[in-house]
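quick one, three chains, predict together pls
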Amino acid sequence: MTVLLEVQGLHKHFGGVQAVEACSFTAAEGQITGLIGPNGAGKSTAIDLISGFKIPDAGKVRFEGREVQGKTPHVISRMGLIRTFQSPREWPGLSVLENLILACFEPRRERFWRSLRGPSRAEKEKANAQLVEARAILDEFGLFHLRNERAGNLSGGQKRLLEFARMRMAKPRLVILDEPMGGVNPVLGERMAAAVLGFVTAGTSVVIVEHNLPFIERVTDQVVVMAEGRVIAEAPFDQLRGNPAVVDAYLGELPTYDDAES
Amino acid sequence: MHEALLTLGFGLVAAAILSLSALAFTLEYSVTNVANLSHGEILTVGAYCAYLVQQHGGGVILSGLAAAAGGGLLALAVHNGVVDRFVRRGIGGLPTFIATLGVSLVIQNVLVIIFGASNLGYAVPQGAPRTVGPFLWTDTEIQIMVSTVVITALLYVIIVHTRFGKSLRAVSQNRSLARVSGINANRVAALTWLLAGLIGGYAGFILAESVGTFSPYSGFSFFLITLTAAVAGGLGRAVGTLVGGVIVGIALEFFGGYVSASYNLAFAFAILSLVILVRPRGLFVGGRRSVFE
Amino acid sequence: MIDYLVTVLTEGSIFAIMALGLNIVWGWSGDFDLAFYGYVALGAYMTLVLTVGPATDPTTYILGLTLPFPLAVALAVVSAMVLALIVGAIALRHLRGIYFSIVTLGAVYVLYVVTGQFVPLFNGYNGVSGLFDPMGDVLGLDYSSYSFFYLGLCIAVLIIVLLLTTRLNGSRFGLALRSLREDERAAAAFGRDIYVTKLKAYVLGAGLGGLGGALYAGYLTAFNPSAWSPVETIILYAAILVGGRGSTRGVVLGVAVMVMGLQEATRYLPEIANQPSFAPALRLIITGVVLVLFIRFRPQGILPERRFRDKDPAGKGDAAAVEPVVTGPKLDTGAA
């Protein structure tokens, strides 16, 4: 089991508030790592720090052994770590298909001069293959009939699926999903779970932040629990139930998590 | 030293006008989150209203009141006619900002058609300069500063001690939360714009008095300096804006007195750009951030 | 009559070039740049000081190199791009939304004040003049045929610019730019270097602005601060908004409506004796009203930007279909 992402002693404060404090955990390759904790535990801030959207005050983030803390988001993304956001961030004015095409970052083709010259034969072929792949992925997520629709017109659940579809298109080494079930009809739960598991099959490891604990239990291999900016536990989900610190943090919510279903 | 004090005296006059204008702008911003690019025209219209009253034999007090009334009505009209509708339709801050630029263009040119594009001036004389301590001020300049202090004090009382002021602060912090707690946010916003318009219109009058002449474009030029003060103080923060107004007003006067008055506007924008680039949320807050924070 | 038509068309093509440049910045990249007319003005000034002879008393300006017109235009475009690179490098680094607009407004005002006040640069408020019929001598054209030649030149340049923007519009560069406009964070999350990409678009747009300015200078034969003020930018914005933000055809239509059409519509207004500024003021009022109404009721413009439509569900596809806009005959209704 190789470590893909290693977070070590991450610190971040806003004004007087310590949002993330000495946060350390690892995520292994080929696994789905859950990141859970009560509201305000610092999960979202931790993701922002890892993906470069916020700059940590101190600490280290290693991705595939390379230090990435303080690097800009696009640099981290190009290394193969891509994240989603709490609210879906599609490109609303572009079509669903364009959203998928744009998920593949192509440094050469996006250059100005190259764009002016037009695509080469090889690039045209590649673009074609991309289009075929995009259609297949959309079909898999049940969005194919919407491929020419303005992405901003999709429903909340469809936008989540679109984010997953974009991720599949981008094929990163590691994807960080920030509350993918947020605002999604629970009926779609099975489909979302399948999609998350599908990432690993497609060669993408997953870190997932989620409040829906049954969902976490269903998909994760390993769970990191945060509370008040710190990591208080790191273990497979079924070993957490006996952990007093975790039960404390959740105020006894964990053993009776049935309500999270609703 | 004496000369520096004299410049400081003139700077205080400029600071007074600038503070009022910037306060009005920041009030508008605080309740709607829209930077009103037609703010300068509130000042211009104020100046022209005072002019009309003076044409018909009105004195300084009546002119000041007319200026405030004109500015207030215009601000209310811009809020109810454009800004509020746009905000309620969910049209974002930037498109609304662009729309207010269109409003500004309309008002400027309506004034050009009515009054012509050339400079006008008031008939009421400024009065001879007199020595007040180390400073040299005319009666008009004393009137400007005294009235500014009074208006600022009144505004403070309104914001801090009245029910309306409490609602205003609530709306400016979080509009939807204020609405949930039973505040009629649209009405509060409209009243705030009216209040801002009253202050802005009066600021336009004292600006024209102090400069001596005004044209349909003078409000817009001054608006650019207003923006500097408001942004330096932190958009939407009243106290910061007041401090920003005083600092920028005095700084400009010293720059004008010791370097070159012609480049005043350029200097103001140099300050503005510097402030925005170094401290985008105003001079009085800070911290290291990435682009996305 | 024919002379008048030539005038209108020449001005129209020049403004279309400028608007196409601004459309790259605002329509694609999404930045509301208020400094744009500064690049137009710099292009115009530079063309003048590079083509006319050295300044003679009492005028003063820099250079005065008597270069051939095409070379001067090229250098003018480069200088506009250099200025845009400096302004953009500073303003695009951390600023977005209104803060970006405010700083660019500041930049153009500084430029405006400096060109007006600092006489040794471009002769202050009197401006630079003396560029009569560029290339007319070389080509041996007389006065009447010259205006046709210049119209042809402007239209030729416009066509080149149109080809260029259409090509970019359908390219991955254009698509990446629009992803920045739509959601910057998502664009960064998927690997786009926002700063560099936006800066490229900004400099490119300014280059077209400078090109428009250079042609404008050749057309006006002179340029001074009364020929431009930061307000001129709004007219270009109104044209883009009316035609269709982000849409190349739309921008051309917008210029036809808002610049040429409005000019025409107010041309036969009665002259009011003591109101020489009536017609221009009325034009600006209409521009302002149109701006507000379009933002409120039809933000996508008359000819909205087209999205790529995938018509080939069978999955074979052809390469061209991947490039948005190239295909797609159906007009988007722009339902929002």
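Residues 3-90+170-261 of chain A form a domain with the Rossmann fold fold (CATH 3.40.50.300).
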